[in-house]
Design a protein that fits this description.
There is one protein chain. By secondary structure, this protein is mainly β. The chain is built from one helix and six strands, in the order ββββαββ. The chain has one helix spanning 40-43; strands at residues 2-3, 7-14, 20-29, 32-33, 48-55, 60-67. The strands form two sheets. A four-stranded antiparallel β-sheet has the order 3-2-5-6. A two-stranded antiparallel ribbon has the order 1-4. A hairpin with a 4-residue loop joins strand 5 and strand 6 (60-67). The protein is elongated and about 35 Å long. The relative contact order is 0.31.
Length: 70
């Protein structure tokens, strides 16, 4: 993800039913390109479609992903 200005970022993952399965506050992320890694086990994900929402002071970004156990 890219930030125009430094900001705290919240990452939230929900399953297809809308249940929040993971949420984390990442304090002070610098301006520019940033990245984070999460494992399926860390997020308790099985096969299915999930929605990832990244929220910063200035923007919200939403991504749909498909997770496969293969």
């Amino acid at each position: 993800y890219e930030l125009e200005n430094p900001s705290d970022v919240i990452i939230q993952i929900t399953d297809a039913a809308g249940k929040v399965i993971y949420e984390s506050l990442m304090k002070y992320q610098p301006a520019g390109n940033n990245q984070t890694s999460l494992s399926k086990e860390q997020c308790h994900m099985s096969t299915g479609t999930y929605i990832i929402k990244l929220t910063s002071r200035e923007n919200n970004s939403v991504f749909n992903i498909f997770c496969s156990n293969q």
